[in-house]
Specification:
Layout: E1 3-10, E2 13-20, E3 32-40, E4 43-47, E5 50-54, E6 58-62, E7 68-70, E8 79-86, H1 88-92, E9 111-113, H2 116-131, H3 136-154, H4 164-171, H5 175-186, H6 194-200, H7 205-216, H8 220-238, H9 243-249, H10 255-266, H11 270-277
Antiparallel strand pairs: 1-2, 2-8, 3-6, 3-8, 4-5, 4-7, 6-9
Helix pairs in contact: 2-3, 8-11, 9-10
Protein name: AraC-like DNA-binding protein
Keywords: DNA-binding, Transcription, Transcription regulation
GO molecular function, one term: sequence-specific DNA binding
Length: about 290
């Protein structure tokens, strides 16, 4: 069964070391997302409608809000994957225009050949997370070196401009779509019916779906699942709320349904994810 071996969370976003032997459903993340093989079998992901390889010499590169899935084939051996979910504001601290990593075109291609330096840093970060799970400072330094190497390798970063889509979302979004987005973000557990969401936005179902996906690059259902997953991750890592309470708050009819959803989207059971993050996430808590 696929599970998280280690999870680190901080101002950079999060890093998960995943032992994967089952597929993930089509989903998205609000982050710059990079997948790197650590050990095990060569494998593959579906990014939009294209199958791309994840091997010792390749990386899978996924833009923010870009739909993708883990395309693990029946009988295929497991693969340990280093999954990076990186916040644009953290990358901006290295280069101002790296905030463009939150846009839809940061990576021009969804796969690229790695360098020996990227391979070495991937292994060093994975080993540090396993051997020194409480050493948050080392993890972040290694991650910074790795992301700099990845961006310099796979993006025309010197030419990057802030995303027009992101700037449009700041002011020019259709107010009906903004209303739907606000409903999802404020109370994802109360949004269970896309038809009702379309009516609340004052649009027909077809027009609502078309306008929503044109604006945000994902369907309303995928957007809802992204918000549910990100809120679940925060609550699971925080460790203060039971899985039953998280499940109920996010609109699942039973904890088993929540557990299945989380495993299908994050590649780990909630229990294993909490255990994997417990040794690292506390290092980033805001002092009270």
């Amino acid at each position: 069964m696929s599970n998280a071996l280690r999870v680190a969370k901080g101002p950079f976003g999060r890093v998960a070391l995943l032992d994967m032997d089952r597929p993930l459903v089509r989903h998205a993340h609000p982050h710059c997302h990079v997948l790197l093989k650590v050990e095990g079998a060569d494998t593959q992901f579906s990014v939009r409608d294209r199958i791309v390889p994840l091997r010792d010499d390749s990386a899978v590169l996924i833009n923010a809000w870009e739909p993708h899935a883990y395309a693990h084939y029946p009988g295929q051996p497991a693969t340990i994957i280093l999954a990076l979910y990186i916040e644009p504001t953290w990358l901006q601290s290295f280069r101002p225009n790296w905030r463009a990593s939150g846009g839809p075109d940061f990576f021009a291609d969804s796969v690229g050949g790695t360098t020996p330096k990227i391979t070495r840093l991937t292994r060093e970060l994975a080993e540090a997370m396993v051997q020194e799970p409480g050493n948050a400072a080392t993890h972040e330094l290694l991650l910074a070196d790795l992301m700099i190497a990845v961006i310099e390798r796979f993006t025309p970063w010197q030419e990057m401009l802030p995303s027009l889509r992101l700037r449009a979302l700041g002011s020019g979004v259709d107010p009906r779509i903004r209303r739907a987005v606000d409903l999802i973000r404020l109370s994802p557990g109360e949004v269970t019916d896309m038809d009702s969401l379309a009516r609340d936005a004052g649009l027909s179902r077809a027009h609502f779906f078309r306008l929503f996906e044109t604006t945000l690059n994902v369907s309303p259902r995928v957007y809802l699942n992204v918000v549910r997953l990100e809120q679940a991750v925060l609550s699971i890592v925080d460790g203060k709320e039971s899985f039953h309470c998280i499940s109920e708050r996010l609109g699942f009819s039973a904890p088993a349904h929540f557990s299945r959803f989380f495993h299908d989207h994050a590649g780990s059971t909630p229990t294993a994810f909490r255990a994997a993050s417990g040794l690292t996430s506390r290092n980033f808590e805001t002092p009270r």
